[in-house]
Specification:
four-stranded antiparallel β-sheet, about 30% helix, alpha/beta
């Protein structure tokens, strides 16, 4: 675990400017005994001391048991970058979930604080100098706006002395260094930080696409569209889900994975043709398999190569109407992929075979569950998921025919 004192000790990371402190208030405790939720709300510009005000407001959580929840709502235009990081550390340290409600906004320093949302460590006490590494618990409602940008130079107008420019530059650099130091504990892969830091004060990287929320393990709290209500599951939906889940479960953007998958399909066809194994043109397929006393269907395709480039990583998508699921296996051919079925039986044996990887392993519910939003191209806007699914259902053949 990283030391909280190291984060706090980085001095004046963003040039100070007059600002009103954010209001951190308690909205009260709701629920029944043993299942209570304390809800806090942060409103306004984030400035020095807000992390302390958050802790004071959180003091009411002493009335809760270790089984109850703490939730922080955020609505802020931003403010002090370092105070946003301090808030993220304190929020995570106390195991408080974060949420941005519909019509609320959370930019810059607020977005950093939002990323501190975490599960409550029921069996571990709060260490004042340590940040635990429990799974994240942060969510946005439909219509919420969360945006990131890099710290920027804040030099007073008409005063461009060398000393002030150098000071502002150093503050911005130190801000980025602090974010990098804390990123792993916020479940942000270092390779994804450039996307959060690329925009400037006049633009932002926003959590408005499937790829953005899934890469950063943010729960999109709109469950109105359920997989069981899908009119169909099509080839594009299967391919999108296979690519998205492979990368998103690793906290990586899936956007580059689409070109990788296209090249992998091409490589498979070319290799099969050279080998003459009668699998050319069959890289994407649908196969009936037994599942207990019924017959089910699975779709399959290779999405990338193994690290040693000797085998393909295959996605197997179980086409179950109520609860479709995904797992991955490495093999050099389709015949090898399904060998556990040929030798032992059905879908269960294939899922449990040596070398099978399930993307939800070790993830929380919100990250581990396959959702409709996973089944559309990764660059799809969150508010357009339903529209995209409808278009795919109308333009492509359903793969669900015959599924029991």
């Amino acid at each position: 675990m990283v030391s909280l004192s190291k984060i706090v000790a980085i001095a004046a990371l963003v040039a100070a400017r007059p600002a009103n402190a954010a209001d951190v208030t308690s909205l009260g405790v709701s629920g029944d005994a043993g299942n209570l939720t304390l809800t806090l709300r942060l409103e306004g510009e984030i400035s020095d001391g807000d992390s302390g005000r958050f802790q004071s407001a959180l003091a009411k959580s002493e009335v809760l048991s270790r089984w109850d929840k703490r939730v922080l709502e955020l609505n802020s235009p931003g403010g002090s970058y370092i105070e946003g990081l301090r808030l993220a550390a304190e929020i995570r340290r106390h195991g408080v979930e974060t949420i941005v409600r519909s019509r609320d906004t959370c930019y810059s320093a607020c977005a950093l604080a939002f990323m501190g949302g975490a599960e409550w460590l029921r069996d571990v006490g709060v260490d004042p100098n340590r940040i635990p590494n429990q799974l994240p618990a942060r969510s946005i409602e439909r219509g919420a706006v969360v945006g990131f940008h890099a710290p920027y130079l804040n030099v007073p107008e008409a005063d461009y002395s060398s000393e002030k420019v150098q000071g502002a530059y150093r503050m911005a650099v130190d801000s980025i260094a602090a974010l990098i130091q804390l990123s792993d504990y916020l479940y942000i892969e270092s390779e994804e930080l450039p996307r959060l830091l690329e925009p400037d004060q006049n633009s932002a990287f926003t959590l408005d696409t499937v790829d953005a929320v899934r890469t950063l393990w943010v729960d999109y709290a709109d469950y109105s569209l359920q997989t069981r209500n899908l009119p169909s599951i099509t080839q594009t939906m299967v391919m999108s889900a296979c690519i998205n889940r492979w990368y998103h479960s690793k906290r990586r953007s899936a956007l580059p994975g689409y070109a990788v998958a296209a090249q992998t399909l091409k490589d498979f066809d070319e290799g099969s043709e050279l080998l003459g194994n009668d699998e050319t043109g069959k890289a994407f397929g649908v196969r009936a398999v037994s599942k207990g006393t019924v017959t089910a269907k699975v779709a399959y395709l290779p999405i990338t190569m193994t690290q040693d480039q000797k085998n393909f990583i295959w996605c197997v998508f179980s086409l179950e109407r109520d609860s479709p699921s995904i797992f991955y296996r490495s093999s050099g051919s389709i015949a090898e992929l399904f060998e556990p079925i040929e030798s032992k039986g059905g879908l269960w044996e294939l899922e449990q075979a040596e070398g099978t990887v399930r993307p939800e392993a070790g993830l929380g519910i919100s990250q581990g569950m396959l959702r409709v939003l996973d089944m559309v191209p990764a660059d799809t806007k969150l508010d357009e998921v339903e529209t995209v699914v409808e278009k795919l259902s109308q333009s492509e053949v359903s793969l669900l025919a015959g599924v029991q």
